[in-house]
Amino acid sequence: MNWSAMTHELTLDEADLAEADLAEAELAEAELARPAQLLAEDAPVIDLPTAERAAAQFLAALGVRLDEEGLSETPARMARAYAELFGPKPLRLTTFPNTEGYDELVIARGIPFRTVCEHHLLPFSGVAQVGYLPSERILGLSKLARLVEYFAARPQTQERLTKQVADYLFECVHPLGAGVVLEAEHTCMTLRGVRAVGATTVTSTLLGSLREDPRSRAEFFALAGMAA
User: Fold this and answer.
1) What pLDDT score was predicted for residue 45?
2) Most-buried pick from 19, 45, 56, 112 (CB within 10 A)?
3) How confident is residue 92, by pLDDT bands cut at 50, 70 and 90?
4) Residue 201: domain span
């Protein structure tokens, strides 16, 4: 028996396996980096001086006397405030191998968020419940809140915000299922128009098994504190 040949063959097999593992890890990293790169390219360019001049013109057009002491710096404050609302922090999802084979829901509840209604540029705020059913990888828990924070940092509708968070989670982590529920109060509805003080709006997006399997769907809503 040619032991030398067998040893050589074994060494080649181990090298092939190591190379395959490295390729798989690089592919997983690339899949995570691609959506992150798309988000980076989508980041807004903020021009504070121009925003301040525009804010001054806007307020003056509405009859606000900016020459008064308490209002003279308002355009600058207004520009900085909206820049903060529209300036998302960089987002990078950190995932880990699901070595323990965890196969139950992971849900972060009561995540506070605030954003601005794209129709009136008035704030709306509330809480998010974000969860997923893991497959091969699990996500750092703080990243569930980061996802909500990131997509909230722009003029939004609640429906779109809900779907963006769920879609991105599903695309990046490749879970068996993902779900997002938002409950918010819109000042464009409570401070103006119908002035329905105390009214809240609830939206949800379910993907994968959380949408297709009635039992998983019911469990998600129960753990999220919502009626199925």
Assistant:
1) 87
2) 56
3) confident
4) 91-223
Tokens linked to 181:
């529920």
Amino acid at 133: L
Q: Write out pLDDT tens, residues 46-64.
A: 999 999 999 999 999 999 9
| Tokens coding 156 | 């939004």
Q: What 3-state class would DSSP assign to 129?
A: strand
Bridge partners of residue 139, in order along the sequence? 95
What is the number of structural domains in the chain?
A: 2
pLDDT band at 121 (very low <50, low <70, confident <90, very high): very high
101: left (phi over 0), alpha (psi -120 to 50) or beta: left
12 domain-assigned? no
| Count of beta carbons in the 10 Å neighbourhood of residue 142 | 10
Scanning the structure block, which residue is given the tokens 């040893």? 7
Looking at residue 149, its amino acid is E
Instruction: Note whether 104 and 134 are same-domain residues.
Output: yes
Q: Could you tell me where the beta strands, DSSP code E, fall in the chain?
A: 95-97, 106-117, 123-133, 137-139, 155-156, 177-186, 201-208
